[in-house]
Amino acid sequence: MANKLLEESSRTLFRQAIAPWLVSDWTQHDYGIDGIVEIVRAHTDDSNYDATGKRFAIQLKASGQDEKIEKNAEVRVSPAHIRYWLASTEPVLLVRIHVSSSRFFCRWMTDELVQELSSRNPSWMMNQTVAVSLPELDRSNNRHLESMEKFVRCYQGPKTKLLAPGTYSRLQASVVEKAKAVLELAQGAGFETVTTRLQALHKALLFNTYVVALTGPARAGKSTLLNTLLGLEVSPMGQLPTTAVSLLVVGAEAAAAEIFMEDGTKEVGPATADYIEQFATQENNPDNHKKVQRVVIHLVNEVLERGIAFADAPGLYDPSESIREVTARALDAAHAILYIIDVSSAQNGGFSLNEHNISDLRRLSKRHDHLFLILNKADVLLPEQRTRTQAYVEKELKKYEVWDKMAQEPFFLSALDAWNWRQSGSKGEGPQKILDDALWTFLLKTNATGTNRLLQSIIELKRAGVDLLSLVNARRLNGMQAQELQISLRKCSARQRELLGLLNARIVQVKDRIQDDLLQGYEDLTTELNTWLSQIHPNVPLPSSAEIQKHIQDELLSRANQTWFELDVGLKQFAAAISIEVEKALQQTRLASGLTENMRILLPSVTAPDLSKTESFEEAWAGMFTAGILGALFSGGFALVLGVAGLLFGLAIGSTARRKRQVARIVRQTNSSLESVYENLWLQMEEKIDLYGKALERQINDRMGLFVSEATRQMQSLGLPIPLSEQLEMTRIEELIQKTVTSMEPFENELRVAGTSDF
C-alpha cells in the first residue's frame, strides 16, 4: 500500500510539473513505459489548447523520504529496457521523483547513454541491471518545458542500433545463407553480371565482422589490453607468459569458450580466465603440449554486438608452424591492428625497436590501413622520458618508412591502469580514452562496424535479387515489346553518358571552387594575423612563438573544416540527384518494355554510392594533427615562424616603426610557411573530391551500364520459343527470389535505425 501511495504521489507531481501538457495514457502492464505525454500549446486569446502532434514516453520512478539524493540520482534498469527505449519511435524520458522534496531527476534515452555505459563496462548487457545517472531537472525558471519540447521536436532517434545479445551473429549467418542461395540461382540462370555482383557480396559477407587484432612481442600486455577493451577478464593476465594460442572474441547470446584442437576436436566451457588459462598459459599448457589450435570466446557485449570482434594473435615467432599459420591468418583477416610493445625499459634508457619489431611493423603496414602502435606500461615514465622515447620511435619509423603509414602517432598507455580503472567502476575519462576515441571514432562515424556493413549487404542482396527477377521476366517479351525495350535501352545508355558528363563537369566546378576558397582563406588568414599583431600596443610584448603557431593552427583548422563541410553537403546532394536520375532512366526502360506485372519489384532501387572511404573531411582532419600528416607540415612549415618568433623574447620595447617591422617579418615568414601547408591541404581535399567522383561514376556504370549490358545480352534469345522445362525453371527462380527478397525485410528492420537511409 505504501508503494502504491508513493507511485500515485509521483504521478500527481509529474502531472503538475508538465502542465498544461497531458499524460494521455498511464499503462498498467508495461514494458518499461509508464505513460505517454502529449505536448499541447495554449491559445493566445483564450484558455483553450491545441495538440502539437509531438509526444514522448516516460518511465517514472519514485523514491521516498528516507532516501538521500545528492546532485544526481541513480536508477537501476535492465539492459532489455534500454534496448526497448532506444528502439521506440518516440523519445523516452526516464524520470525519478523524490516525493518528499518534490525534486525531479530525469534523462533522455539516447546514444550518449549507451556510450557512457560502454565506456565503464562494454559487457554491461550481461548484467541483470545497470545504474543510470539522472541529473536534477532545473525548474526554478519554468524553462524546463521549453527545453523538453525542443528536444522532442529535434529528436531523430538513435544513430546506432542496440541489438539484443546474439542478434548480429544470427542475422549474419542467415544473410550469408540467403546470399549463397541467390548466387546459385543466378549462376544456374546464366546471368553473368548479377552473378559477379553476388559473388563479391557473398565473399564480403564472410568477412563482414570488423576484426581488431592485438599482436606484438610476448609479455607486452596484450591480454591486459584485450580485457580492458572488453571490460571483462577473459584472457589470462598472470605473471607467467601465455601460450602463443590465438584468441578470437565475438558477440553472442550467451557467454561460452570454445577450445579448438589441432586434431579437429573441440571443448566447450565458461568464458572465464580461469577456464581459458588451462589452455592458453605456459603454466598449464607448456609449449602448447595440449595441441590447442585456437580459442573462440563468445561474450554478451555491446561493442561486440555492433559486428566487431577482437583477435589476440600472439604467436608471431612461435616455434610451432601451425601456431604461426593461425596467427598469420588472424592478422590477414583483421581490419585494424594494435601492435603492443613494452616501453617501460625507457625509464633507464634501455628501450629500442628491435629487428623483429621493425619487421613486424613494416609487414603489417603494407596490408592494413589502420595500424596502431601501443607503447604499453608507460606509467613508469617521466614526461621527459616520454618525449625522448617519442622522438626516437618517430625517427626509427620514418627511417624504415612506417611512420606515414600509421593510423595515429604511437600511444603511450598503461593497460594495467586502464584495467584497474574499468574494475573500479570509476566515472569520467579512463586512461584508455585516447585509444578508444581513435579506434571507435573511425568505426562508428564511417559506418565501418559489422552491423552497418550487414545492413548495406542486405540492401544490396535485395537489389541483386530484383535485378535477377527483371532479367528473368525480360526473357518472356514478345517481338513488339522487345523492340520497345531495345529503343529504351539505347536511351538509357545515352542518358548514362550524359550523367557521366554532368558528373565530370561538376567535379571540375567543385575543384575550381575549392581552390578559390582555399586561396581566399590563405589571404584572409595572413591579413587577420597582421591585424591581430598590429593591434597590440608597441609597449606590450608580442605573443610567443607557441601562441602564434597555435593561433594560426586553430584558424586554419576552423577554415578547413568549414570549407569541407560545405563541400561535403553539396556533393551528397549531388549524389542524391544523380541517383534519382539513374532511377528515372531505369524506370523508363521498365515502362517501355510493357512489363506491368510485379512493377513494385521488377527493377531495384538505386544502389547507394559507396562512400565508406569518403568520410567527412572534418573527421579525417581531426586526426591529421595526431596522425602526423599536418603535424609534419606544421613542424616543418612553421620552422621559419618559430625562428622569427624566437627573437621576440629578446626584443626590448621599441617604437611603432620597429613593431611594424617585427609584425611584417612574422607575417612574411608565416605567409611563406603557409604556402606549402595550403598546397598540401589542397591535395588532401582534391583526393577526397576524386573519391566522391569515382564512387558516383561506379554507381552510374554499375546500375545503368551493367543492367543495359545484361538486358541486351538476354535479348539475343527474345522471340525464340521457350521450352517447357525453361518456363518451369524461370517460374521456380522467380518464386525463390521473391521469397528471398521478402524474407530480407525483417532482417533490415532489425538493423536499421531511425533516420537512416541508403546513402
Mind explaining what this structure looks like?
By secondary structure, the chain is α/β, with parallel strands linked by helices. It is 55% helix and 14% strand. It contains 23 helices and 16 strands. The strands form 3 sheets. Strands 11-10-12-9-13-8-14-15-16 form a 9-stranded mixed beta sheet, with helices on both faces. It has a 5-stranded mixed beta sheet with strand order 1-2-3-5-6. It has a two-stranded antiparallel ribbon with strand order 4-7. Strand 1 and strand 2 form a beta hairpin. Helix 5 runs parallel beside helix 14, helix 5 runs antiparallel to helix 23 (724-751) and helix 20 (629-637) runs antiparallel to helix 22 (656-714). The protein starts with a helix and ends in an 8-residue tail after the last helix.
Strand order of the largest sheet: 11-10-12-9-13-8-14-15-16
In what range is the share of β-strand residues? 5-15%
pLDDT below 50 for ≥5 consecutive residues: which ranges? 592-654, 754-759
Mean of residue pLDDT? 76
Biggest beta sheet attributes? 9 strands, mixed
Structural class: alpha/beta
Would you count the extended β strands for me?
16
Alpha-carbon distance between the termini? Answer: 54 Å
Instruction: Please bin the fraction of helical residues.
Output: 40-55%
| Rg of Cα set | 31 Å
User: Which descriptor suits the 3D outline?
Assistant: globular
Number of helices: 23
Give keywords.
single chain; 759 residues; alpha/beta; five-stranded mixed beta sheet; 23 helices; disordered C terminus
